[in-house]
C-alpha cells in the first residue's frame, strides 16, 4: 500500500488551507498513493490567536470538509485529516475524518486533549468519548489517533488488538524543550508496542515542528520530513508486518485481557 504524508504551514484563512489540501491530494494521486495523511487542525492557525481554529469551527456539512469530499470523488485515494467541528456555542471537537471516493469513511473525536506544557486544549475543545474504529485501505487495516493521543500507549494497543496493521497520526506537535525528541521516540515506541506501521503528519511553521514520519513495525524510520512543507512517501508491506509479528510476538505474548485494556482506555 503506497502511503503519502503531507505537511504544510496552516494559515489564518480556511479557503487557502483547503486549497493546499486539495493540491496535496492531487500530488498524492499523481504518485499513485492509496493513502494521504495530513496534519491536525487544518481550518486555521495564527500565532496571535491560539484559539482561531476553534473560532472558525465548521460543521460536517460545511465548506471545508465538503470540499475534501467532493475532490475525492472518482478516486481510490483515502485522505485523513482533522478539523474543528462545532459542538456548543464557542466550543468545538477536534475531529478526524477519513474520506474516500466522495464518502466519509470514519470520524473520530480526539480523546486525549493537550492539557500539558502550559497549554490547555480543553479550554474551548470538548474531548471525545468513543474509541476509534478501523478502516481498510488497500487491504491494510488502519487505525487512527490524533497528536497527543500518541503519548497514551493504551490507545495504540487497543487499535492493534482490533487488528490494526497501520496507525495514522495527524498532529500539530508544538515546539519546546525536548519536544522533537519526544515525537521521534514516541513514534518508534508505538510502532514497537504494536508491531504496526505508523504514518504521522506534523503541521509545520513557527509554532509546530513538522517532522512528519513513516515508521515500520520494527521502529525503523522509512521516510522523514524536516521543518519545511513537504510530502514524503513509503510503501506499507503486509508481508513485513507478518514477519515482524512472527519474530516479535508482543501482541500474542500479552498476559492481560483485551477487556481490561478497553476499560483502561475508556477511563483515560
From TrEMBL:
One of its GO terms (molecular function) is hydrolase activity. SUPFAM superfamilies: Carbon-nitrogen hydrolase (SSF56317). The keyword Hydrolase applies. CDD domains: nitrilase_3. The keyword Endoplasmic reticulum does not apply. Keywords: Hydrolase. InterPro entries: C-N_Hydrolase, C-N_Hydrolase_sf, De_GSH_amidase, UPF0012_CS. Residues 1-238 form the CN hydrolase domain. PANTHER family: DEAMINATED GLUTATHIONE AMIDASE, NITRILASE-RELATED. Belongs to the carbon-nitrogen hydrolase superfamily. NIT1/NIT2 family. This is Hydrolase. It comes from Shimwellia blattae (strain ATCC 29907 / DSM 4481 / JCM 1650 / NBRC 105725 / CDC 9005-74) (Escherichia blattae). The gene is ybeM1.
Amino acid at each position: 500500500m503506497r502511503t503519502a504524508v503531507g505537511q504544510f504551514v496552516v494559515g489564518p484563512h480556511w479557503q487557502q488551507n483547503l486549497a493546499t489540501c486539495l493540491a496535496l491530494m492531487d500530488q498524492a494521486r499523481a504518485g499513485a498513493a492509496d493513502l494521504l495523511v495530513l496534519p491536525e487542525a487544518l481550518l486555521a492557525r495564527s500565532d496571535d490567536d491560539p484559539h482561531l481554529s476553534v473560532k472558525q469551527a465548521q460543521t460536517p456539512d460545511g465548506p471545508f470538509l465538503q470540499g475534501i469530499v467532493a475532490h475525492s470523488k472518482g478516486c481510490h485515494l483515502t485522505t485523513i485529516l482533522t478539523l474543528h467541528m462545532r459542538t456548543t456555542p464557542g466550543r468545538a471537537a477536534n475531529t478526524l475524518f477519513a474520506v474516500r471516493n466522495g464518502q466519509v469513511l470514519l470520524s473520530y473525536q480526539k480523546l486525549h486533549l493537550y492539557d500539558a506544557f502550559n497549554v490547555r486544549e480543553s479550554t474551548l475543545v470538548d474531548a471525545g468519548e468513543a474509541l476509534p474504529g478501523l478502516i481498510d485501505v488497500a487491504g491494510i487495516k488502519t487505525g487512527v489517533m490524533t497528536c497527543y493521543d500518541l503519548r497514551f500507549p493504551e490507545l495504540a494497543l487497543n487499535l492493534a488488538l482490533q487488528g490494526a496493521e497501520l496507525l495514522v497520526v495527524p498532529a500539530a506537535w508544538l515546539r519546546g524543550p525536548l519536544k522533537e525528541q519526544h515525537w521521534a521516540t514516541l513514534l518508534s515506541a508505538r510502532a514497537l508496542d504494536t508491531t504496526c506501521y505508523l504514518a504521522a503528519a506534523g503541521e509545520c511553521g513557527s509554532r509546530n515542528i513538522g517532522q512528519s514520519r513513516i515508521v515500520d513495525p520494527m521502529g525503523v524510520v522509512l521516510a522523514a520530513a524536516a521543518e519545511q512543507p513537504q510530502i514524503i512517501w513509503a510503501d506499507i508491506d503486509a508481508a513485513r508486518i507478518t514477519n515482524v509479528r512472527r519474530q516479535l510476538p508482543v501482541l500474542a505474548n500479552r498476559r492481560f485481557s483485551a477487556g481490561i485494556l478497553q476499560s483502561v482506555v475508556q477511563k483515560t
